[in-house]
Amino acid sequence: MLIRGPSRRYQLIRRSWLPRAIVLGALVLSCFTAASSQEGTRIRQPFEGIAAQADQARDANDLERALVLYRRALAIRPGWAEGWWSLGTILYERDNYAEAAQAFRRVVSLRPDHGSANVMLGLCEFDLGQDNPALTHIQRGRQLGILKDPHLARVMLYHEGLLFLRKGRFEDAQQALSVLSRDGGDGEELMLALGMSALYIFPAKLPPDGSTAREVVIRVGKTEFLAAAKKFDEARREYSSVTDEFPETANIHFAFGRFLLSLGEVDQAVAAFQRQVQASPEHVPARLQIAAAWYRINSAGALKYAEEAVKLEPGRPFAHYLLGLLYLDTQNFSGAISELETAKRSYSTLPQLYFALGNAYARAGRKADADRARAVFARLNAQNEKESEAMYYGEKPSGLSEQRLDSGAPGKPPE
Amino acid sequence: MTAFTRRDLLKALGTSFVLPRGVGVLPSRWFPRAAPSGLSPFEERAQALFEQVPPAISGILWKHVNGRSPSYYLPETTGAGCAFLDYDSDGWLDIYLVNSGRCDFFEPNPPLRNALYRNNRDGSFTDVTEKAGVSGGGYGMGAAVGDYDGDGYPDLFLSQYGRSILYHNNGNGTFTDVTEKAGVAVLGWASSAVWFDYDNDGKLDLFVCRFVDFDKSKNKLCGNEQAGERFYCIPRVYHPARSWLFHNNGDGTFTDVSQESGISKVLGKAWGVVATDINNDGLIDLFVANDTVPNFLFLNRGHGKFEEIGLEAGVAFSQDGQARSGMGVDSADFDQDGWQDLFVTNVDQEMYSIYHNVRDGSFDDLAGPLGIGVTTRLMSGWGVKFFDFDNDGNVDLFIANGHPDDKIEAHSNRVTYKEPLLVFRNTGKAFENVSASAGSVFSESFAARGLAVGDFNNDGAVDVLVAVNDGAPILLRNVAAQGNHWLGVRLVGKRANPDGIGARIIWQAGDQKRSRLKTGGGSFLSSHDPREVLGIGSRTKIENLEIRWPQPSGKVETFTELPIDRYITIVEGSGIK
User: Fold this and answer.
1) Which residues contact A35 (CB under 8 A, 6 or more apart)?
2) Which of A120, A267, A296 to mutate to test the interface with B (most CBs of B within 10 A)?
3) Pairing state of beta strands B532-537 and B485-492?
């Protein structure tokens, strides 16, 4: 269910939202319609008559007839964004995602700033298995702002979370699903998705229904739900309990550690990550979490973990980047330069990488190289600043985050 | 001389970061991270450090009004500042509080005004604003106090969103708006300002931070228009602007030297500024906190020129190369190695920075090893000040906090709008978070902004004034220094600048030798007691006090047989008065 499409619950929510969405969306688009109505002056009577009939049929829930009439009206006036919106929502309602996507694509091309149309297009693409454009459109819609409708917001966040899960961007999934939890989302599907994001489980590897492992995922999800509701003490107790009961569950100490880290409890978090390393000696992300948590606080102590991570997974650029930062912080400039240059092969457009390299070169006395690295940093940083889209304060990741640096690239969940 | 490096830190040398110069500082185990829960040895024996003076006692009934509107104009959430100043030169600190007011987006009815409270010398204050003529008249931001004409009476620069004001102190309890006449009329969003003598000509010049390029017509909607959600914008969405530097001509007028000095070469979103000397060359530098763009470190190259070296110095960005939301700044030599260190407050998730001077023009952020990073990770800081609250001879740290977005709790799990005050005690080995036992006010939360320090009751214990956005100010009486001895010093420059900014004070009390540079400004939108309180702990005698006046005199004066537990005034070239 989670692998192939949206949950029944969120589909039900989606459908209960649709009639209102048609009206709300049409209202939002009506300004545009009025502005563009001049194009059809010569054929006003036929178009307006058909459009009115289409709206009547839609309102009367005669969707078959509404479809025919909207298509006829849009053939006369293809710039009628409101008509494409109504057509798209009816097609979506009828699970005709391919044609609905085409309709919403027309709305988006006519009104690129229409957030809800972007989201609807993304939802269609989700159902069509087109994950990359689906995520792009949902995120764009979210940034643009959507209709004031809690159901649409929840459906959007849920699907965004699922798309992140499919791509292995578990931290991003967790963030989207936490927002959904705060915004009134609930139900087993959400708990399951939250649990998967915390435990770094790809949808394809979800334990079977009815299994104990699945129950553990749901319990972890419920714990994350408590955290999202700011019930931190309860969440801590529940995390502690579930990790004690199921210490062998993959990534469970890792999830607990990340939860503790989010509370700023570094020592306890590191202890949890260390338990994870003990339980799964090949666990690279837990080592990287320890190294990142201790960076600047206990860089000398963190070195061991970053070095082990690089040894276990030499192809992981974040491990090289982090090790480079730690070498820099412990005055091993040649080691820092070597690791950062390795990381540069994958992070060639990451300003922070050049910032660190500039510092490492400067400390090593390589002034010319430092100046060059700093110049690249300044250029990339200015570019990033222009592209930055956050306009208001909100939940944002703290410290060094592999997924933030790797965003777009597939995640590497531990086995 | 061996430079302090992080390698020194790891080599585990020494026992205290208050060490002779050239000796490395401590390993990380000597910097136990501040633990908010659980009692430290200091907390176990401590009583409250600060007591709030209620309005019923202080007589300070004035409140800040931010004029919060549905349009979420950014200035609403950023003010305001406050100041300790002795406006009537009677030896007792008075209080100045800045309010919002009429501007292009705000028409308060009834009108709002700033407040000047005269010290009644009994712990209470009297509102003398109207008589003094300093009620403001715009959307106020901060206050910078300095005797720019050397007449012995402190003048007041009021920074505002809109038109800032320079109030000249007439010496008779009144002030005159001389903004235009003096040539310091700045239009735009001015924030913190500082008086200092950048060209060592013995006259106080004026640096004024400018925040973003903003007016009502440029207000942006940040949120979700279709959902009707609106929040205060991250300043990232507004364009940066140039700050101002004014040269004091010595005749009551100033010349805008922003361009030729190099100050206006770089555009920032400046909030806090401190005038300090980072390389001990006798030329005062400026450290400026910028919001969402890199901080500035303006190195004074002499001959009226500044060079911005923030990136090379390692103070422009976070350690992982991110520009942060710099708010308040300060500077002090917290480890007594003879070199000025820096502090900057940021918003949540960014952590505040305490930059240790590496002595080669660069700095090392010790927020991580000192525990300040972990403690402040979820907090947003504004006013900040290094000062020795317990008079043990080590400069401690006080920070005012509060998130800029009053709706942050709607979209953040762990960050709150109102936040507690923080106080860290410098043990000589570490900064220990002693907030939990510092007094009941530290268990409350505020939308704190400006922070000024000064000894309003002349007991030698430096008190604290905190300005609260859309609320009453908090006046805190210091009760932490009881039992420790001190000497309060007011410096009056004659050839050097009148406020003695840039003077170095060195004192020896028994086994304890300390050195302090008199900095200018610091904190956020606020101004402080011009006197320096020299704490000597339980020692009962100061054997030696040396004043190294800044240029143009550069005079070095040494005093012995000094009194303690009282204030003295040292007039350059004339001794103790």
Assistant:
1) none
2) A296
3) antiparallel
Residues of chain A neighbouring B414 (CB-CB closer than 8 A): 230, 232, 262-264
A300 touches chain B (CB under 8 A): yes
Which residues, 6 or more positions from B274, have their beta carbon under 8 angstroms from its beta carbon? Answer: B194, B286, B287, B329, B330, B331, B342, B519, B520, B521, B522
Residue A181: which residues within 8 A CB-CB, separation 6 or more? A190, A194, A224, A225, A228, A229
Identify all chain B residues contacting A398, using CB atoms and an 8 Å cutoff: 349, 377
**CB distance from A397 to chain B under 8 Å?**
yes
Of A147, A325, A392, the CB nearest to B405: A392
Query: In angstroms, what CA-CA distances link A138 with A117, A119, B167?
Result: 9, 4, 55
Which of B342, B331, B235 has its CA nearest to residue B291? Answer: B235
Residue B433, token pair as written in the block: 């978070």
Nearest to A145 among B7, B227, B311 (CB): B227
- The residues, ordered by sequence, that sit 6+ positions from B163 with a Cβ below 8 Å of its Cβ are B138, B179, B185, B186, B187
Q: Is B147 helix (H, G, I), strand (E, B) or coil?
A: coil
pLDDT higher than threshold 90 for residue B27:
no
| Cis amide prior to B110 (ω within 30 degrees) | yes
Q: Which residues have a Cβ under 8 Å from the Cβ of A395 and sit 6 or more positions away?
A: A175, A178, A179, B411, B412, B413
DSSP A341-398: HHHHTT-TT-HHHHHHHHHHHHHTT-HHHHHHHHHHHHHHHHHHHHH----B------
Distance of CA B336 to the CA centre of its chain: 19
Q: Note the pLDDT tens digit of each residue in A57-114.
A: 998 989 999 999 999 999 999 999 999 999 999 999 889 999 999 999 999 999 988 8
**B113-162 tens-digit pLDDT:** 999 999 999 999 999 999 999 999 899 999 999 999 999 999 999 999 99
CB B320 to CB A355 under 8 A?
A: yes
- When CB atoms are compared, the residue of B233, B320, B368 closest to A297 is B368
Q: Is A38 on the interface with B (CB under 8 A)?
A: no
> What is the enclosing helix (H) or strand (E) of B538?
none
Name the closest residue on chain A to residue B32, using Cα atoms: A297
Task: Extract the tokens encoding A126.
Answer: 């989700």
- Give B312→chain A minimum CA distance, Å: 8
Cβ B406 vs Cβ B68: under 8 Å: yes
Inspect the interface and report whether the beta carbons of B222 and A391 lie closer than 8 Å.
yes
Contact list in B for residue A228 (CB cut-off 8 A) is 413
> CA B319 to CA B343: how far, in whole Å?
14
For residue B33, CA distances in Å to B100, B196, B501 come to 39, 36, 34
A chain contacts of residue B233, beta-carbon cutoff 8 Å: 391-392
Amino acid identity at B529: D
Residue by residue, DSSP assigns B62-129 as --------TT--GGGGT---EEEE-TT-SSS-EEEE-----BTTB--SSPP--EEEEE-SSS-EEE-H
Model confidence pTM above 0.90: no
Residues of chain A numbered 363-382 and touching chain B (CB < 8 Å): 374, 377-378, 381
Poorest-pLDDT segment among A294-298, B180-184, B421-425, B443-447: A294-298
Judged by CB atoms closer than 8 Å, whether chains meet at B226 and A330 is answered as no
